[in-house]
Target: Nucleoside triphosphate pyrophosphohydrolase
Amino acid sequence: MPHDPLIFAPDGSVTRLRAIMRALRDPQTGCPWDIEQDFASIAPYTIEEAYEVADAIARQDWPALQGELGDLLLQVVYHGQIAEEAGHFSFEDITRSISDKMLARHPHVFGEESRDKSAAQQVDDWEKVKARERAERDQGGVLDDVALGLPALMRAVKLQKRAARVGFDWPQTAQVIDKITEEAQELHEAKDRLTQAEVTEEFGDLLFVMANLARHLDVDPEDALRAANAKFTRRFRAIEAALADQNRRPEDSTLEEMYALWNAAKAREKQDATR
Model:
């Protein structure tokens, strides 16, 4: 079957990728799976690819990062093709709007404003520009455009930052810690008389306040939890390795033995860190 020659041009860049996507979505000759997809069905893959980009960066696996960035770019091209077919906007509209946005949000680079600002001042200016853009879109509510699809912890921090800008915030970190203690105590005392739905709600309240503490401490809770996950994985694998040297598995040992091996792994990490 005939195809656009650009599809087979190795130096076709994004234009080649767009031609490939058009061919995949062709109602007569395309891929049945690709033809069936829409914004909603593709969105989970978009989120997954963004996380895989972050994972490659965390592992400093640069060859993998190249591939993952390609996968993420494919998602943008995919959404752009679906939008173009539906008559919503074109791929050129996407690139034009983001280019215009970068110009508008960086007047210290592309305009007359001075570059003599700290990074924090530039972030503050960025947020002011975003607030003006929201007002122009008739999004008057402070929380109106905090994306629903964000990871829950990330969205909690963004919601709290927005509220804090208009003064709805604890002024001191100690007050946040007091609230965490209160919420944890309430959950502990009430867990046996609450329904599962109520326990889930109370636990959500506790996590929300923990996210607030992260914000007050200038900690990214997603990064912190990701690091804690990696540490747990590393130390548990050390337990497995130590037991394997004895021809044993975790299920063949006691909790006390595993705790001892955990603490040994922890001590080795601390020793290695001081060398």
